Amino acid sequence: MKGLDQNRAEYERLIEVFKAHDIGYFFYNGGGDSADTCHKISQLSESLGFPIQAIHVPKTVDNDLPITDTCPGFGSVAKYIAVSTREASYDVKSMARTSTKVFVIEVMGRHAGWIAAAGGLAADDRNDIPIVILFPEVAFNQERFLAKVREQVEKHEYCTVVVSEGAKGPDGKFLAEQGTRDAFGHAQLGGAAPVVANLVKQALGYKYHWAVADYLQRSARHIAARTDVEQAYAVGKAAVELAVAGATARMVTIVRKADEPYTWETGSAALANVANVEKFMPRDFISADGFGITPACRRYLQPLIQGEDYPPYRAGLPDYVQLQNMPVAKKLARGFDLK
Amino acid sequence: MKGLDQNRAEYERLIEVFKAHDIGYFFYNGGGDSADTCHKISQLSESLGFPIQAIHVPKTVDNDLPITDTCPGFGSVAKYIAVSTREASYDVKSMARTSTKVFVIEVMGRHAGWIAAAGGLAADDRNDIPIVILFPEVAFNQERFLAKVREQVEKHEYCTVVVSEGAKGPDGKFLAEQGTRDAFGHAQLGGAAPVVANLVKQALGYKYHWAVADYLQRSARHIAARTDVEQAYAVGKAAVELAVAGATARMVTIVRKADEPYTWETGSAALANVANVEKFMPRDFISADGFGITPACRRYLQPLIQGEDYPPYRAGLPDYVQLQNMPVAKKLARGFDLK
Description:
The structure is a homodimer. Chain A is an alpha/beta fold. Chain A has a domain at about 75-220: Phosphofructokinase domain (Rossmann fold, 3-Layer(aba) Sandwich). In chain A, about 35% of the residues lie in helices and about 15% in strands. The first copy, chain A, is built from nine helices and ten strands. In chain A, the strands form three sheets. Chain A has a four-stranded mixed β-sheet with strand order 1-2-7-8, sandwiched between helices. In chain A, strand 9 (about 315) and strand 10 (about 315-320) form a beta hairpin. In chain A, about 50% of the residues are buried. The model of chain A has no long low-confidence stretch (mean pLDDT about 95). Chains A and B meet through helix 3, helix 6, strand 6, helix 7 and strand 9 of A and helix 3, helix 6, strand 6, helix 7 and strand 9 of B.
């Protein structure tokens, strides 16, 4: 098992703690790395003679876990990005003739372009919005990108660029790392959007604005998709049922039965088939020119942003529940320092 | 009248067009510059013998018009920033011990700190969130800022910084202009957030993330404040009523009657008293250390973000109305080129 040797002491301590507190179930909520950890705990606990039922509960805005139709968290981020892209695009459109012509929004997704793809949903048959997407899966070609932006601006008077934080040049270097330095000459981390905006300005002379949604997108519970919220509850419930039925080393999955109306149910997969596999955007989800989404991608994404699920408000703001996070009393006498 | 001489030909043409189409009312929706334009049109039209009833309808996210209690548009942006700041802060809090400790969000407001102040609403008696605000009205003091951030992180494990795009150093230079250059050495426009985040990283070593909300904040109709929407309709209605009653060169205002419960009515003010006056955050709205809002500021802001007013949705996205913007047939034979 890759990585286990480096962290063996930590895993062993964890199982020692489980044993001391008589914990037999381990539910781990997260993405690929957590799935991997969950898998290791299950295997190691068995080899140490205290087998723990380890169940992975999928949850990652990156939507890059294999087998499951989608990952809870993603649908709501997708909705946030689609809504924000539509709203900002209409803002730009209203002034494009005399002001900003190109708006660049940077979205999360270091390796996979699922969130960037959601920007494409802002346009549909009733909303003719010119959107150019830069996916991590497609090597950035400066010349073709600038030609595409110019073409859109000449046709629509404006253009919105959705750039993934993971967009890379042909040399494999992140766009976000190409360029900006602070006054002291330190390379500035983050910021594919300003790099792309500056490029447009230098080459085409268009006035621009840019936004970096960063954590705003993944914490935006106020605009969560109801489908996503339902799936989040369902995978939690299914995880407990799996454990009660005696399963271990499995991940709960969402199984799509039909696109429209969207029907789904929960299922499960062996963690051995999940760990260390990243699900990228398939080529047939990306348009031939590399800058947009295909109808197949739209059929996949559309149900995931469906429905609203507003939180309760108090004094004009969402009234979020806060966990108390009260630790139980320590049972092991010996301490343990994390490296 | 300042500026009128440079644009006299344009103003004269405008009034010529009004005359040709027998237009007697002019309603102008906007901020300080529009108020000024509206005022000039009223005065010039009179001197040209075709007096137009020019009424200014306040609308600016900057909230910097004088006399009126607030400006439609502002309450919804304030709500967006308060909501987003709360959401992202809880995201950071959940991982602060082992990951990001400082989150920086950049908000609009080139001159006045009203939107930045709204970030302060994210924290209240039930939400103990450490927020450090950088207002345009308070000269940035690097040493005191870093001490404040360190103090908050030591106490809370994390800290959220709300920086106005208009935050300036003691030399009067925008923070956003201090620093970043692209690979070609061009100064990069925009981006106070990365400058501040980098500063924190260099001086304190804390892991950071930053967001720039840019147009997302001002176009976010999906999270509009109901109070704001009601006021937007009310000022439009009041403007028409003012015109019908024979008024000219006036701006509709919102008059606050009480803080809690918030009661208000529309009124009006002479444009002569509005044009070229910017309303900044009063000193007693900013905490003594310059990094927060006072109870007086909270009493002012709180009602403005009150209530939700969700748009209709279709296929998971807001179904926004689009104006047809159909021009009437031209009546003047002679063309006119804008400079």
